[in-house]
Amino acid sequence: MRLLAIEDERELAELTASALGRAGFAVDIAGSLAEAEEAVAVMTYDAIILDLGLGDGNGLALLRSLRSRGASVPVLILTARDALEDRVMGLDSGADDYVLKPFHMSELISRVRAVLRRPNSALGVRLEIGNLAFETAHRQVTVDDSIVPLSIRELALLELLLRRAERVVTREAIEQSLYSFGSELGSNALEVLVHRLRRKLQDAGAALQIHTLRGVGYLLADQSP
Question: Quick check: pTM over 0.85?
Answer without folding.
Answer: no
